[in-house]
Amino acid sequence: MNDRAPQPVDRQLPTEESRDLLALVREIAQREIRPVAADEEDAGTFPRAIFTLLSEAGLLGLPYAGEYGGGEQPYEVYLQVLEELAAARLTVGLGVSVHSLACHGLAGYGTEEQQKAHLPAMLGGGLLGAYCLSEPASGSDAASLTTKAVRDGEDWVITGTKAWITHGGVADFYTVLARTGAEGPKGITAFLVPGDAEGLTAAVPEKKMGMKGSPTAQLHFDGVRVPDTRRIGEEGQGFTIALAALDAGRLGIAACAVGVAQAALDEALAYALDRKQFGHPIADFQGLRFMLADMATKIEAGRALYLAAARLRDAGKPFSRQAAMAKLFCTDAAMAVTTDAVQVLGGYGYTADFPVERLMREAKVLQIVEGTNQIQRMVIARHLAGPESH
Prior knowledge:
- The protein is α+β, with helices and mostly antiparallel strands.
- It has helices at residues 16-43, 48-56, 75-88, 90-109, 112-124, 238-274, 286-314, 320-345, 356-366, 373-385; strands at residues 129-132, 148-152, 155-166, 173-179, 188-194, 200-202, 216-227, 231-232, 276-277, 280-281.
- It has ten helices and ten strands.
- The strands form three sheets. A four-stranded mixed sheet has the order 1-4-5-8.
- A hairpin with an 8-residue loop joins strand 4 and strand 5.
């Protein structure tokens, strides 16, 4: 395994504060996350202590308002933090992105009273969140979800099952989308549900090909009672809230994908410079040099794409199409780059002694989560050509 720390990415950051922030993140990643990533992933160990450390360092609420404990950082900066964390360990980078996704609804649509009551703990109080939209029979067609929330006086009673929930069973709070009205997107409402709510249980985590340290589990809501004060936004506004969160979340996935790809390139380059065949480092051979060049180009293109979308978001401009493009391109690039990294290492790349096989397995899930890449193509095409006519 390559023990050398990778060279820092040459980043264009807007302020001296943001440069100091990225330096802090790299230090935490190199000292606390990267050295144990392989062993903990192999053992399926969830790094809760790391998330506590990140919360204490102010890194779990970076894109949110300072008055509630957030970091008030633009998305341009926050996404590059995610990239650095994902390069060290995807379980951590993606976990921060999911936590941010879980905070999005309350931060963007909650009342002032709700935000004062809950956001400080969510953003910087050591809590960890999860986002509950998908169901066993409702994945890409999220508007068909069937988990119900029925009004009972001043409470809502939630019944149903959510699926593919990152941090399922370990999160302290869940942003839950449930049906409160008729079929279709207009009958969905968002709720903030405590992780220890009575009637809420988690199934055994899924056995996955990658990200074994990140629990992904079904959640069962058996008459879970939450007060109306934990309803986020208006009744029937939930699907709008969910889509807005996903636009931002897709940028998080894109940044994580670039981080995974960068880590794979770093490993492949280090190996190619050290490994000798026929009396020369294999990095001298043109065929391999071209592979490295293509890998680096995909990474730079992906980084530029997600940052361009982030700057649109920071400027308050529409960015949904660009977010879908970034998620699509960056995750496809990560799959290609990690596959090539395994090839560069040859037989060693196929062994668990080197991290590239793990990075390749992890890259695959990024083409699936928060909207498959087929869904991203549908989103992009609708922006270009309008809705389908059928």
